[in-house]
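lol ok so funny story. i was supposed to be doing the assay writeup but got distracted and ended up predicting the structure for this chain instead. priorities right. anyway since i did it might as well share w the group, maybe its usefull for someone
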Amino acid sequence: MHPPRMARADWAPLLRQARADGLNHVQIYTFWNFHELERGHVDFSAGTRRDLGGFFAEAAKAGLFVNVRIGPYVCAEWDGGGLPLWLSGVANFTCSRCADPVWQEQMGGFVRAVAAEMRPFLARVGGPIVMAQIENELHLGPRDPYVAWCGELAASLDLGIPWVMCNGASASNTINACNGRRCSDPGQYADTHAALFPGQPLMWTEDWSFFATWGNAVADESGPAFAGRIGSWFALGAAHHNYYMYYGGNHVGNWGGASLTNRYADGSNLHSDTLPNEPKRSHLARMHGALAAMSDALMGAPAVPRADAPAVDGWKQLLAFEYGAAAFLQNTAGHAINATYRGRAVSVPPLSVSFVLGNATLFNSATVDAAGIACNRTYTTLAAPAGGALGGWESWAEPLPPAGGKFLGKATPPEQLSLTLDRSAYCYYAAELPATSEPVANLTVQTIESSAFVMFLDGAFVAAADDHTKGGNRVTVSLPVPPAAAAAARGPRKLLLLSSSLGIQNFGNPGPGDVSDPLNFKKGILGDVLLVGADGKTLANMTAPAGGWVARPFLGGELANASSGDAAAVAWAPCAVWTPSAPLVWFRATFSDPRPAMPAGSVLLLDAKGLGRGHFYINGHDLGRYWPLVPGASRHYYVPLELIQEGSANNTLTVFDELGAPQLATVAFVFSQLELPAPGMQCPL
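and the output, tada:
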């Protein structure tokens, strides 16, 4: 679980759910750029998503141990992998995650700040923290001085707990751990671990539930597949396993990595809206119970290498991994195997693992008992007079051309993040279009993947385009000029572009300010801006026009605090709800507390059908990006009830839509819950 991806009020119940599911420890990342927005000001404010101490306390109350993965580079599909943008402004900074003393000073400062939060909760004083991680997925040679320095930093903190380094190089005083989905596969990490790291426990820090990017469906791996590889892992003598994720949560604000959807790891044991992913959750919980029953025997015997596991009853594809009274029977065949084991008949389904204690089979990874499990999801629209019904839509057009704020004029387009500091996803660029000899068919912009643009000429909308590929590579985005505007686009005209960052890549790039990559941690216009004719010929190069470029970070609505619901500078007016709106419009509607209309166990969602792309806010809180029109993306977005004023009829939903809302009338709040499937129906495994 990641506290910043979780509503604060959800921490306690979700931690209790994990414990009830038979888990005994929770693993978290700490996100450097989330806690240290400004250099030197580390924020662990009580009662917020930044409240590390509060999370540790809730874990202890739930009966869970904690592994604190400090990083502070975390990857994690988080904006910039957790590295703060202000690193680029630190004097003499040359590289991240290396032996640069400037990097080590900044990184070490954050690690020590986190360690100070951990101290009251350490195991040696009766607290839940039993483990910590330094760095993350560090692909350097084992003799690189930075690897040893990480180990020295960890030791200097004197926390009295084991330290882990995962999926790459590890210092000699840390435990090496595996990340991925294949850690227990033949020939992979589990089979080579003992030789490479003698005497170390076998640990799996990330067993992945895949994330989703805009335009791609959520990957939801079946419970039997998960249980099969976890069974194989413990059969080989493992001491530790962590779901990445058990609960993924949501990306509020701009914290999602490049092109990450609002929902994170929605195929996990719990969905991103906190509802259980059934029958997967229940199936895995039964497996946890079997492992708990077997734990004394498992921990009391040495690990069994795959090559030493005997065949059962002459079946070469049915291996027995024996730990005293406990055993794992692994069938690697594509068919069921019936055999005799410990004097009784056993039947092990194909490609599965049976968990055995004494003469009883406690669990089989492929055998799912879904009887009596509510696994059919329903959605019910909250309509008047029930609480939660949206009423009285109003709109306010984003001021064009931009007014107010801080403008920057340069000969060429300035880089976006240097202006926004990643506090906003948006930046305006304005220039004068020159006259061209032929009609313009396209305006092309060199930028970076996970970027979007909206184009205006003389204040009139012309086109929108994006590249929502997850990555950090240079791309060219082409904004088509419709035939009706092609002749007019020949100039001279006033060009306005709104650049939208779809998140900063979280891996594969050096850190901000790293001299090794000129594209790293950059957004907006990053190269040529060309006017192109219908035949593909360049008609004009706008990269350095005669009048230069003017940039203005932030939306006008952000500067005016439009999302607060009571911004004096915003002139809201009633608007149409059945017809498409223009791009770059703010909308708001009021609603009453929906709790009285919601059944127990249900969750509140925003049904974004009828919106384009943008951000939505509940009572001024930015709950992140929505984009229901992209294939594979969700139309439903989690709304934590903690943000809604209990008993009030004056709650506010505010929306900024970049593309224009096709039909506001279909936007609604819904409650979602799980019900028993209808007779004859089965939920997917």
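The mean pLDDT is 94. Residues 408-554 form a domain with the Jelly Rolls fold (CATH 2.60.120.260).
back to the writeup now i swear
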